[in-house]
Amino acid sequence: MKNCLSFSDDVASALASGKPVVALESTIITHGMPWPQNFETALGVEEVVRENGAVPATIAVFDGKIHIGLDREQLEKLAKMSDVMKLSRADFAFALAMKKPGSTTVAATMMAAELAGIDVFATGGIGGVHKGAEKTFDISADLTELGRTNTIVVCAGAKAILDVEKTLEVLETQGVPVIGFGCDNVPAFWSRDSPYDVPLRLDQASDIADLWQARKDIGQNGGVLITNPVPLADEISALEMGQYIHQAINEAEAAGVKGKAVTPWLLGRIVEITDGRSLKTNIALIRNNAKLAAQISVALTVALKV
Ligand code: PSU
Ligand code: MN
């Protein structure tokens, strides 16, 4: 099975010697941000992981392999590519078998991280239940993946384009612990706050490592979702974001945007509506998540040595 994995040298040696490694997704690069901010952010996020004591492993599919750890050239190529599949569980093996280039969403990155033996993964915001899902049935495969695959996912909450309340309900059904990191309300991606209580709260990276160990002790499978509020200086208030999101969703409906295209379309339109401000916030929150993910992966290796 593992010959479909191709490790970069630094990720391979970090894993072999039990050093902390943080997985990073690539859909945010290909479908989540425009060039050149996508490339700059990918490099910057890797640097944040290194500064905090872990080795970054950005994950993508090309040449029929799952690449765990990309070099600068590979990241740049991916960031400039236009015909990249946005991979989730449903199409992961298709891209491998047909040797199509693909970027990994939260769901696919969790699958790859588990195969590679990486416990911690940082993203921006997970996919979830879309507003109006009672009509469209648009519920991200990220949620079911969180229910089954063994990865700690650090995010800034569900993207506020979603129905956060329904997203929390599905996560509960899937048995996913949703942890507020130092917060009592579920963060809403661009905003620190939402009207929804976070089901569980932890304040230290070492507490998250302890929770992970306790799950292993009881043989529990599935993901743990850490929701980490965007730094105060970078947030856009929920009140302000609400009107932009409303406008973008109405326009998407009028334009007939459906399926996999919905999330990238809305994110792109919101960058335009806010004249780039939402992108600055998106970059800040993913860097903030990368830092926490590195701290958790360091805490996990410390816990294992005791
Ligand atoms: N976080 C971001 N930007 C993104 C995403 C997350 O800041 O583009 C991506 C993730 O890869 C996530 C995907 O898995 O959006 C969700 O897509 P969908 O709603 O189609 O499941
Ligand atoms: Mn969807």
Description:
The structure is a single chain. The protein has 306 residues and is an alpha/beta fold. The protein has one domain (2-305): Indigoidine synthase fold. Helices cover 48% and strands 14% of the residues. The chain is built from 13 helices and eleven strands. Strands 1, 2, 3, 4, 5, 6, 7, 8, 9, 10 and 11 form an eleven-stranded mixed beta sheet that branches. Helix 6 runs parallel beside helix 8 (141-148). The longest helix is centred in the C-terminal third of the chain and has 29 residues, at 277-305. The mean pLDDT is 96. Pseudouridine-5'-monophosphate binds next to helix 2, helix 8, helix 12 and helix 13.
List the SSEs and their pairings.
Elements (H helix, E strand, L loop, with lengths): L4 E3 L1 H8 L4 E4 L2 H6 L4 H15 L3 E8 L2 E4 L3 H9 L4 E3 L4 H6 L4 E3 L1 H11 L3 E3 L10 H4 L4 H8 L3 E4 L8 H10 L4 E4 L18 E3 L2 H13 L6 E4 L10 H17 L7 H12 L3 H29 L1
Parallel strand pairs: 1-4, 2-3, 2-7, 5-6, 7-8, 8-11, 9-10, 9-11
Antiparallel strand pairs: 3-4, 3-6
The structure holds pseudouridine-5'-monophosphate and manganese (II) ion.
The site of manganese (II) ion has 3 residues, from loops.
